[in-house]
Specification:
alpha+beta, Rossmann fold, SH3 type barrels, Elongation Factor Tu (Ef-tu), domain 3, 3 domains, six-stranded antiparallel barrel, five-stranded parallel β-sheet, 18 strands, globular, ATP binding
């Protein structure tokens, strides 16, 4: 167990249970450690065309019954549609490629859900994210939520010392680390959130789940859009965005074909262009106003690369803007290897990021997330 049992004993903790192995194992571990655990389930999407919600809710309830813990259901479908799904469609229609998981965490899981859960009288909520929360005790950093060992001197004072701040840290399992999706955390939120899986590997969690008799220990990992599930993005977009035929041109302006809607394509995409000639082409630009998709052949793939980006809606986890220029590690997509970069301020909520090496397919709408070693500093939405 990677959180002190002394810390957990008697604490009222609501576990966000998705019906999957990760959150179910968190609930089982906390229950075993003596915490007063409540299972919390969010009903956010119920479209029968793609929803896995019925099965997931049943699995979450099955785990709660197995553990003998209360089970509470929140219905945030209206809020989820307005804050996440509407945003998703609006961004795609504007030619950008949004990240709905980041918006879901920001607007639903750690905002509306956190607020409503705490109204139940809980001390904390916990999730099955592969990341950790680090509390700084009088300038002595130590993982409380995401560390397998806590020194005795810290453990003994854990209830008496007022923490100065909190840090969000990446999970050690580099194939599962979810810190990229969590950079919008505030200090107030981190103070009430436990992320116990930060120092575990996925295979360890499955083994623990099996040992503890968690009913879903062998359930496959979920894929796709947060709470919606695994869907074909083009099909999902087509439900709201109409066919809008336009031209596909090369870098010299030669027309190579037509497309059904610029929002169905992302930078770097190769599949689905339907351009003949036997030469692979990649999307290198989207001219939204002219409704033109610009492509380049494989031997001109360098057009996809850039060392610089600007980002808007900048957020700093510490709540304090750093000094610039700022040397960081950065990534522009989930699980990308961390890249050396320098950040400069443009305005209060806009930054420029200069990478040491060229980056492929920097996509407006996605997020750039900034790190100092394994600590998430913050990030912003790529312009």
């Amino acid at each position: 167990m990677n959180i002190s049992e002394e810390f957990l004993l008697g604490k009222k903790i609501g576990v966000a249970m998705s019906g999957g192995v990760d959150s179910s194992t968190v609930a089982a571990l906390f229950k075993t450690a003596g915490a007063n655990v409540t299972g919390l389930y969010m009903k956010n999407w119920s479209d029968p065309r793609d929803c896995r919600g019925v099965d997931d809710r049943a699995d979450a309830l099955k785990v709660a019954l197995k553990l003998g813990i209360p089970f509470h259901v929140f219905d945030f479908e209206k809020e989820y549609r307005e804050k996440v799904i509407d945003y998703f469609y609006q961004e795609y229609e504007s030619g950008r490629t949004p990240n709905p998981d980041i918006m879901c965490n920001k607007e639903i899981k750690f905002k509306i859900f956190l607020d409503e859960a705490l109204k139940l009288g809980l001390d904390y909520i916990a999730t099955g994210h592969y990341a950790g929360v680090r509390k700084i005790f009088l300038n002595h950093p130590e993982l409380v939520s995401g560390s397998k060992e806590i020194p005795k001197q810290v453990r003994n004072d854990i209830f008496r010392i007022r923490p100065d701040k909190y840090e969000l840290v990446a999970g050690i399992d580099q194939t599962k680390d979810q810190s990229y999706f969590l950079y919008t955390f505030t200090q107030e939120q981190l103070a009430r959130v436990l992320l116990p899986l930060g120092n575990f590997y996925k295979k360890e969690i499955r083994e623990i789940a099996k040992t503890l008799g968690v009913p879903v220990h062998a359930k496959p990992d979920s894929q796709g859009i947060c709470f919606v599930g695994e869907v074909k993005i083009r099909e999902f977009l087509s439900r709201r965005l109409p066919k809008k035929t336009g031209e596909i041109k090369d870098l010299k302006g030669k027309v190579l074909g037509t497309h059904d809607g610029i929002y169905f394509y992302t930078l770097g995409q190769r599949e689905g262009l339907k351009i003949g000639g036997g030469i692979p082409y990649y999307v290198v630009d989207k001219k939204v106003r002219e409704n033109i998709l610009v492509v380049a052949p494989l031997n001109q793939e360098d057009k996809l690369y850039s060392k610089s980006l600007t980002a808007r809606d900048t957020h700093w986890v510490s709540g304090v803007e750093p000094e610039f220029p700022l040397k960081v590690k950065a990534r522009i997509r989930h699980l990308q290897a961390l890249q050396d970069a320098v950040v400069n301020k443009i305005t209060k909520d806009r930054i420029q990021v200069e990478f040491e090496k060229d980056q492929r397919a920097i996509s407006p709408g996605q997020s750039v997330v900034l790190y100092a070693k394994n600590v998430v500093l913050g990030g912003g939405i790529i312009s």
